[in-house]
Design a protein that fits this description.
10 helices, alpha/beta, binds 2-acetamido-2-deoxy-beta-D-glucopyranose, single chain, eight-stranded mixed β-sheet, globular, Rossmann fold, 41% helix, binds S-adenosylmethionine
Length: 275
């Protein structure tokens, strides 16, 4: 069963505003894998579950054509509304049934999205679409991001507050995800039958942003959005409480203060055999 979330217009907008783009380093690793396994030319890349297209556009400089697909018209509308390279386009469609011919795709990516797909259906479809020696790249990050500010002592106390935030959201997490999506990806990795495949469990990526954006990022997660729908007052109280605690630890009064946010990425790479 595929899981349909992220479809509200406001959620799509908050998504585009706060979600972090996949890091260049990781895009680089994916392209290096494709180069090594298949080699040029890089004709078509398809980014499945592209959402607002933040990752899709990063592929544009490297391919003749890049197509982002998503089941959510609200997400695609946000993606379309941003200017993008002429060789990038978007199409509505489910990951389990995509509108491309057999063996036509050099690189198939799913960025922070594959955990929502019906895994067997998606992997079967990926196998149909990939060209011989074409590659599949699934990447995501864990929810327990870490904050750094000023010194170790303060950073440690900030992370205690963050843990409290994540724990409060845990009951609203979609049951399908389990307590950690890494396990879900590990299973997907194990069910890929291609001999050439890689599992990369941990790549920490640090970025700097105002504290407000960190809050926005956590609030864009499906668990927070579920709570927000169920009990908007409680959701807002939780955010306010966490924000107040973080500000107190930092010893500042404005949420515009910059913090470092460390995100733990993990990813799967696989190459379809020639025969
Ligand atoms: C967490 S977002 C990731 C968006 C984007 N790839 C990024 O990195 O920011 C997941 C996206 O997957 C889409 N999605 C969920 N299930 C899907 C399915 N079965 N087929 C296609 N897209 C799906 C959702 O609509 C949503 O836009
Ligand atoms: C696709 O667009 C990007 C960004 O404008 C560009 O760098 C790249 O060369 C384009 N690819 C082709 C084959 O036109």
């Amino acid at each position: 069963m595929a899981h349909r979330l992220f479809e509200g217009k406001e959620h799509a907008a908050s998504y585009q505003k706060y979600r972090v783009s996949p890091p260049d380093m990781l895009i680089g690793q994916i392209l290096a894998f494709l180069e090594k396994k298949k080699g040029k030319p890089f004709s078509l890349a398809v980014d499945v579950g592209c959402g607002s297209g933040q990752g899709t556009v990063l592929l544009a400089p490297h391919f003749d054509q890049v197509v982002g697909t998503d089941i959510s018209p609200a997400q695609l509308e946000v993606a379309q509304s941003h200017g993008h390279a002429p060789n990038v386009s978007y199409r509505e469609g489910a990951a389990e049934e995509m509108p491309f011919p057999d063996s036509s795709v050099d690189l198939l990516t799913a960025m922070t999205a594959a955990h929502w797909f019906d895994a067997p259906g998606f992997l079967r479809e990926a196998d149909r679409l990939l060209s011989p020696r074409g590659c599949l790249a699934l990447l995501s990050y864990t929810m327990d991001m870490e904050l750094q500010y000023a010194d170790d002592h303060r950073s440690q106390r900030l992370n205690e507050v963050c843990k409290e935030f994540y724990a409060a959201l845990l009951p609203y997490r979609n049951a399908h995800l389990g307590s950690c999506s890494v396990t879900l990806y590990k299973h997907m990795y194990e069910s890929i039958l291609y001999p050439e495949k890689e599992w990369n469990e941990c790549l920490w990526v640090k970025s700097h942003m105002p504290l407000r954006s960190y809050m926005g990022l956590v609030e864009s997660f499906s668990s927070y959005q579920t709570l927000l729908k169920k009990d908007p007052e409680q959701a807002k109280r939780l955010s306010q409480d966490i924000m107040d605690k973080l500000l107190a630890v930092m010893g500042v009064s404005t949420a515009e203060t910059e913090v470092a946010v460390a995100v733990k990425y993990f990813y799967v790479l696989a190459c379809k055999p020639a025969e």
